[in-house]
Amino acid sequence: MTDRDTALAIAGLDKSYGRTQVVGGITLDVAPGERVALLGHNGAGKSTLIKLILGLIRASQGSIRVAGHAPGSAAARAATAYLPEQVAFHRALTGREQLTMFARLAGEHPKTVAPLLERVGLADAADRRIGTYSKGMRQRLGLAQALLGRRRVALLDEPTSGLDPISRHDLYAVIDEMAANGTALLIASHALTELEARTDRIAIMAKGRLVADDSLGNLARAAALPTRIRLTAREGSAEAVQAELGGDRVNGRAVELHCTTEQKMAQLARISGLGDAVRDVEMVPPSLEDLYRHYCAEVRQ
Ligand SMILES: Nc1ncnc2c1ncn2[C@@H]1O[C@H](COP(=O)(O)OP(=O)(O)OP(=O)(O)O)[C@@H](O)[C@H]1O
């Protein structure tokens, strides 16, 4: 990847407070249009990394380039959208007034405000005071702010926390749209299940280090975690099925097996060899949560 292709480029990044290193040896690139999930336990260093990228604190060592610019510089700030976990607004302003103020600060024409409010589903509430908004509505307003000016890099900190399922879905639709327009997105979150289907790459931090950085598929292959195969046996056949295939009996008629990617086809052939003793087969690949546990456990040892 060349510098030009990389919207966000982080190399050899360290941050210490006194003698305590809180972030160490981080090298991470995010390309235009890429959605990268940033995962990590409480205190892993995610917020510190985001603050370093925003230029709010300075690195002890290493480099960060935001759209080719130094973090915190006017050019980097103009290229960056940031959605904090707790979005703070003037409660006395209406949504429209607040967003118009942000648009002016961002050098955008105020006429961009109405379509943005529409886009995030706040058109009807645009002229109500923010003090009357629910958490989800404030989060939507924050997202509208992040959408101002088509930034090259977007940093979203727990963007879906406290949102109901429909609002989450809408939020990811906006994230997808930003990515399709070429924005590089770094999304810090603990919501593993929803990130699984919604990001291109997973970066996992543990104790200040980056312990994984790849697509879900590649991480799963490298971790070689087993796929679960759950069989529902025909009535009275569970024992025979277990005797033939091994595995564990799970409540009455189900038998659960574990196998590697390489063993999967051979295992399926054995299952179909049992004919109508098996009524149904369900395959459950390792989840992001399984992978997360796996990569974090490596550091804990
Ligand atoms: N100003 C500071 N001085 C000393 N230590 C700090 C400072 N700021 C953060 N830390 C430490 O750095 C580590 C990383 O904190 P950080 O807030 O980046 O974690 P996080 O991954 O964002 O956690 P969470 O998921 O809980 O938000 C923690 O151990 C924290 O105590």
UniProtKB/TrEMBL annotation:
Domain of life per record: Bacteria
CDD domains referenced in this protein's UniProt entry, alphabetically: ABC_DR_subfamily_A
Native species: Roseovarius ramblicola
Keywords from the UniProt entry: ATP-binding, Nucleotide-binding, Transport
Residue stretches making up the ABC transporter domain: 8-232
Protein name per UniProt: ABC transporter ATP-binding protein
GO MF annotations, alphabetized: ATP binding
